[in-house]
Amino acid sequence: MVTGDALRGYLKYLQDLGVYDLYRTSDVADPQAAGLLSSVAANDEYRGAAAPAPVVQDVRTKPISKQASMVTDLQKSAEEPVRVLPAPQRHPAPTTMSASAESASLLAESAEAPFTPLMAPTSFNNRAPLPPVSVEAPQKVAVLQALRSEIGDCTRCPLAYAGRHSIVFADGNPNAKLMFVGEGPGADEDASGLPFVGKAGQLLNNMITAMGLKREQVYIANIVMCRPPKNRVPEPVEANTCSQFLLRQIDVVQPEVIVALGSTAATYLLGVKQSLVALRGQWHNVRGARCAVTYHPAYLLRDPKMKGEAWKDLQRVMVELKQKPASPS
Ligand code: URA
Predict the structure, then answer these.
(1) Distance from the alpha carbon of residue 39 to the mean position of ligand 1, in angstroms
(2) Which of 66, 133, 201, 221 is positioned for an S-S bond with 170, CB 3.0–4.6 A?
(3) pLDDT tens for residues 213-243?
(4) Residue 120 banded pLDDT, cuts 50, 70, 90
(5) Largest alpha-carbon pair distance within the chain?
(6) Ligand 1 within 6 A of 200 CB?
(7) Cα dist. 232→109, 113, 187, 235 in Å?
(8) Residue 250 carries which DSSP code?
């Protein structure tokens, strides 16, 4: 059921599509970082493939000079078969499922899931090839800042008009070995501009401490950077639009392990809509990193007896990272 507010947001968003962003060019302030950023995002595929709402995304991000040819590009792409890119490999192939099993599961899911084909989740691996170069450690801060500048005062999806105050980019160490991905900012995060600072964030901090780590040592981000109204689950068009930037953050940080917190993060990172129970307890592959799925801290606050299960997931991560737990105080 679409509420009046949501409808007004969508209308404003659509009006905006025709005027504002069409003429916007990149706002990246630091030319050197901009160069590095574009070498990480080396080709149009990196952008275009990243947004399964491609008509919207391409029109809004391509410079004016490219727009005439875009009509023919789109016509051509409608005729061309969809190209599925091989899963990028830094670690061994995903232990979860083969590409064909993944598409089979998507097809099976599509019968019951509320996704239209354009909105179907696409795994981060299938959205774009891995970048041709890795960003060196000392440059990661500048490259992430350039990415943040590129996002600007984003109006790429309806969440821009749904009452957000901040764009919550990420927090933590750009050279982290471990990255946590949540769903989207809540009220506290929207107010502060930082991810996971509310009650769920305090629990996440405790989980990180129990792993023998400090929050400053890990990298924390979300599937969407703007707060969905009333903390609802992000719509596919919102998640698919925003997660192109998460994808690029992952490619810059290149963590060894990514922990997907909850089913929204797992759905969009892995491109499968399956229960958490089915996805936990195995290693997945996301952009060359090993990915574990566990419960979202907000869920653990509602059902604290599941904390033990989440701890088992984190212990597997610690073994992978050769990380010793915090010593009991
Ligand atoms: N829940 C999330 O998924 N992300 C946050 O940043 C906060 C709460």
Answers:
(1) 30
(2) 221
(3) 999 999 999 999 999 999 999 999 999 999 9
(4) confident
(5) 65
(6) yes
(7) 22, 17, 12, 9
(8) H
